[in-house]
Amino acid sequence: MNPASAESGYQYPLALPILDPAQVQPVLAELIRRDGWSRGALLDFQRQRLARALRHAAAASPYYRQAIGAVANMLRLLRMLGTAPQARTLGIGAPTPLHITNRAFAELRGGRSDVPRLSVLTPLADVVAALNEYQPENIFTYPSYIRRLAEEQDAGRLAIRPARFVSTAEVLTEHVRLLAGQTWGAQVLNGYGTTEAGMLGTECDLAAGVHIVEDMVVFESVDEASRPVVPGTPGAKVLVTTLYDSPLRLIRYEISDVVTLEADPCPCGRPYRRLASIDGRREDTLTLLAPDGRQLRLHAGRLRAPLDGVPGLRQYQLVQRSADSILVRIMVRPGADSGAVAASTRSAVEHEIRRVGVRLGGLAIHVVDTIERRGGAAKECLVGAV
């Protein structure tokens, strides 16, 4: 199915009905109550639910839909973000309901007919017009799209005053936080979830790392051999076990995200563990050479922050051509000097490559007209094919 068909009037048969708020509120109240638990109480509850989850999976018993609990969890996370239920909130995410951002953002609308239905593939002029009319207070979207909206605001076509953005689906860099602050005076908080396991957590309003909702999941950051890694050390992958009732139980389900756990509790007082960083997918790893000829694995996300800060650079993609050669495809903002942007891109990449100790024999910068977004989620593709 072509995701773009969502923008030409196609109605997906998988769209979920909006739930009655009266069904969600009791579950939401219970989830909010858990925010005040001690760490010990949280872990006791998690162990009880884990035993229940394993019994359920072993018996393969059908359970009621997970939707009520999932929606209540999302509303609980909204409160953690400091977002009032009645605030003008919308999401701009995937064009297809096969991805979590599409389904979650539909629930954000809460059945309100005045909330625009937008995706990252909606024509930009239509997005700008809809946002100018709706004037959202909170926007959930990809960090790459926050950059795009900032470009429209700077050009004078977009005129909105959001107080808060919530970054989803892609890796959030400090540059995007600073950009939103400079453009709108808005805060950017980080959210984290997967299509398979749902919303896994979000930052609180202290913006000090994503709180994992450990009353809903058991979350493990592990090495290649599935052994736990200590806080402060990036894992090789994530294992998720769901604790809520659903027809399909996930038991140590593998997700190829590279994350680092935070050792200390959050000053906000909530009992949940936090993620100090989310680097992206393991597949976005480049295998390069150290000066002594040894192979050196470099996650391409290390280059994301330097490239986000290049003036005039709209989008970029890394391609490994050989063990010591990288191609960087770039899109340049209208009005920017493509030669100057290419030179700044080269300088940013070379600086980071030297800093991590990689021997690079060749670095090519190609200016292109388009870089396609990837998959049903329509996310930016950090590492592309030759």
Overall SS class? alpha/beta
Superfamily (CATH H level) name of the largest domain: ANL, N-terminal domain
Q: Widest sheet: strand order?
A: 2-1-3-4-5-6-7-12-11
Number of strands: 17
Instruction: Tell me the β content.
Output: 15-25%
Q: Are there runs of 5+ residues with pLDDT below 50, and where?
A: 1-13, 61-65
Radius of gyration: 21 Å
- Number of DSSP helices? 9
At CATH's second level, what is the architecture of the largest domain? 3-Layer(aba) Sandwich
Intertermini distance? 25 Å
CATH-assigned fold name of the largest domain = Rossmann fold
State the helicity in percent bands. Answer: 25-40%
Total count of domains: 2
The CATH class designation of the largest domain is Alpha Beta
Question: Would you kindly provide a brief summary of this structure?
Answer:
The chain has about 375 residues and is an alpha/beta fold. It has helices at about 20-35, 40-60, 65-80, 100-110, 125-135, 145-155, 175-185, 305-310, 340-355, and strands at about 90-95, 120, 140, 165, 185-195, 200-205, 210, 215-220, 235-240, 255, 255-260, 275-280, 285-290, 295-300, 315-320, 325-330, 360-365. The protein folds into two domains: about 5-280, ANL, N-terminal domain (Rossmann fold, 3-Layer(aba) Sandwich), CATH 3.40.50.12780; about 290-365, 2-Layer Sandwich (GMP Synthetase, Chain A, domain 3), CATH 3.30.300.
